[in-house]
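Write out this protein's structure.
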Amino acid sequence: MNIIFHTPLPLAVNPVSASGIRPMRMIDAFSALGHKVDVVSGHGRERAKAIGDVKKKIRNGTKYALAYSESSTMPTLLTERHHLPTRPCLDFGFFKHLNDLKVPIGLFYRDIYWAFPEYEKNVGALRAKFARFFYRYDLQRYNSQLDMLYVPSIRMVESIPSSMTCPISELPPGHDFDAARVSTTRSGVPGELRLLYIGGLSSHYQMHELFSAVSASANTRLVVCTRDLEWHSNQSAYAPYLSENIEIVHASGEGLNALYDRSDIALVFVKPHAYWTFAAPVKLYEYLGRGTPIIASKGTLAAEFVEANKVGWVIPYTSDDLSALLRHLSQNPDEIERARQQCLTVLSQHSWKARAAQVINDLAGA
């Protein structure tokens, strides 16, 4: 089966952020399922050439079963380096060409942060007004040109400030592990409960209650893996909670393997707010793919996932609740092992290959 993969930005060579990881994983997943993928990506000039190559293949007889696109966090028309709409017809003109050829199109809509008041505070009123015009233009074109709009969670649709008439489906992140490849052993200090957090420390990821609980918990160790720049930008806010049993590291790629091997439980224990009610963090699925049970804070979509799949524990976002849970788990290690086994049972349902297979089934019926 021939598939067109489209994204209005260059692909990251060694992606570390969710926005860079996801496109590469979906391309790999389509290929792993045995399909031929032609990629349209890059800045405008590169995309124009790739679109020309695809059109030439079509003229020469190539039949495409579907096109799948990953949106940018920027409006499509503002993804040039200068962020000006100098190629207004490039991407949606290509979609129109595919519409005329009856090639079904699905697009993953990454997030809706631009519709929240915080967006204007961060970028300024004038830039926000300019960008929002083009964000809304994207939504208009999606309604008229897509066969399926994918979102991280259906709940995100409630925050879209436009009436969406195209079909919509969930397509959360995935992972690229299988149960046979997950380490069956955990190294570390006997009798010590080992916790792991991997991800950001921005205003979206407030975890002061986590630091507070761990610093006061005996026989517990927390490793926080975040980018060096983010830690230095936020270190002062966490300084009152730092203790000898909290370690800050800046690993990535293969360097994460040792962190998982030394961890009993992973964390999405963040302060809930509106964004977290629909956000589906990549780290949640990577934790699952590594066979690591999860503690999530109540009031988040991550907590709903953990609870529905029975792959960890959901508690209110307070240091007291977390401290009580950590004491309980320290005294009941069999409960951690049961959650771990449940992770291994369900992880195949949430792989990147499973996500790609869903797209193929939705758009090509195969």
